[in-house]
Specification:
Blueprint (H helix, E strand, L loop, with lengths): L1 E2 L2 E2 L4 E5 L25 H10 L2 E8 L10 H17 L6 E5 L16 H9 L8 E4 L2 H9 L3 E4 L9 H4 L1
Parallel strand pairs: 3-4, 3-6, 4-5, 6-7
Antiparallel strand pairs: 1-2
Length: 168
């Protein structure tokens, strides 16, 4: 699309919740790398989204940090491991945002249903919110997306991520 003499590129992203969308959610916390189990088909489907021109961004509540169930080093190790799997498959996760707070101990703007993690991604990557999608397995994910002006798609926990052609 042209705007005067400058080209305007619409940047779009797929925001993804982590636990229950990317990896198996045991309905408790994923407290170590050994407990992190990527769900079947996730890597292949994310590559399709990437190849369709979407920037991939993870936005995840990690309230177990506030409860002392695991450390930020564990969260970073899990994200580094997952990024490695993605790189081996020919694509990257542009950024991992996580909220370390828990609703029982601290009210914040980043913990979903707060939209700050999504808003940071929109700003950091200069994205058009109307061209972005969030896939999550809880209503709070969808509420965060709506608050940020992003389309939200609710899936069942530990099910498959829809392919681009199924939602676009």
């Amino acid at each position: 699309m042209k705007n005067g003499s400058k080209s305007v590129v619409v940047k779009k992203a797929l925001f993804l919740d982590r636990d229950g969308v990317i990896n198996f959610d045991p309905d408790d916390y994923t407290t170590s790398l050994s407990e992190f189990q990527v769900l079947p088909g996730v890597i292949e489907t994310l590559k399709q989204w990437f190849n369709a021109g979407y920037i991939l961004i993870i936005v995840t509540n990690q309230g177990g940090l506030a409860k002392g169930r695991y450390t930020k080093d564990v969260v970073h190790a899990i994200h580094q491991y997952f990024q490695g799997l993605c790189i081996q498959s020919g694509f990257v996760i542009a950024h991992f945002y996580f909220c370390s707070h828990h609703i029982d101990s601290f009210r914040c703007l980043c913990r979903k249903p707060g939209s700050l993690m999504i808003e940071k991604g929109l700003h950091h990557f200069n994205l058009d919110a109307s061209e972005c999608i969030l896939i999550g397995d809880r209503q709070r994910d969808i509420d965060a997306a709506i608050s940020a002006g992003v389309r939200g798609i609710l899936i069942e926990r530990n099910s498959r991520i829809p392919k681009p052609e199924e939602v676009c």
